[in-house]
Structure formats: C-alpha cells, structure tokens
C-alpha cells in the first residue's frame, strides 16, 4: 500500500466514478443488494475476505490508500480492488473506517454482479 497526498478534487472525481459503477446496467435482484452489508462484528474487511474465500478462494482484495488534507486532520480514501479492478472506495477521517467502507462497497458490487 502506498501513501500519497491526493488533491481533494481527484478524490471526489474518483468517488463519482465509483458511484457510477454502482448504478451500472448489471443490477441484480439479489435480496441483500439494498441492505447494508456488515459482518457480525461490523468489520466489512473480514466479510469481504470470507466472501472471496467462499467463491473460489484464489482472488484477494488489494487496497490503495491516499491521504488529503492537513497531517493533523487527514482525509483518507481507500480503494478496494478485486482482480486489479477498483470495486469499492471509502473516504473518512479514520483510515480503518475508510478501508471498511471500501470493503463494504466492493462486497456489495460483487454480490450485485454474481453470475
């Protein structure tokens, strides 16, 4: 994971792109599609890893992180990639919360696009 300062306008552009992905034409009628996805302890990183293990086990989630803002009040953006493709992004003042949000969105994307 690399740590980079990214201008906030790029973060918002990327968040827009991720939002557009979530409204793609590949919508599913999966019953959990519109419900929040949370693992039992609230950790979506674990839930995503468990999902990937249960669906072949060879795919791993990779995360890219970037930081914007002042060092004493950073805004973190974490992008979750599955098979080297961005599938979820999260932005928050807490790095772990941003990663958890990115994992949640990636998991929602995977479930919505199941074959």
TrEMBL record:
The keyword RNA-binding applies. SUPFAM superfamilies: dsRNA-binding domain-like. GO terms for molecular function: RNA binding. The keyword RNA-binding applies. Gene3D superfamilies: 3.30.160.20. Pfam families: dsrm. InterPro entries: dsRBD_dom (IPR014720). Keywords: RNA-binding. Residues 43-112 form the DRBM domain. This is DRBM domain-containing protein. It comes from Pleurotus eryngii (Boletus of the steppes). The lineage of its organism: Eukaryota, Fungi, Dikarya, Basidiomycota, Agaricomycotina.
């Amino acid at each position: 994971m690399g740590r980079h300062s990214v201008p906030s306008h790029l973060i918002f552009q990327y968040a827009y792109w991720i939002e557009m992905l979530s409204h793609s034409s590949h919508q599913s009628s999966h019953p959990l599609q519109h419900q929040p996805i949370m693992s039992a302890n609230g950790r979506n990183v674990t839930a995503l890893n468990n999902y990937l293990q249960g669906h072949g086990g060879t795919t791993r989630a990779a995360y890219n992180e970037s930081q914007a803002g002042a060092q004493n009040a950073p805004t973190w953006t974490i992008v979750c990639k599955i098979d080297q493709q961005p599938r979820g992004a999260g932005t928050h003042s807490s790095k772990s919360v941003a990663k958890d949000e990115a994992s949640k969105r990636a998991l929602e994307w995977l479930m919505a696009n199941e074959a």
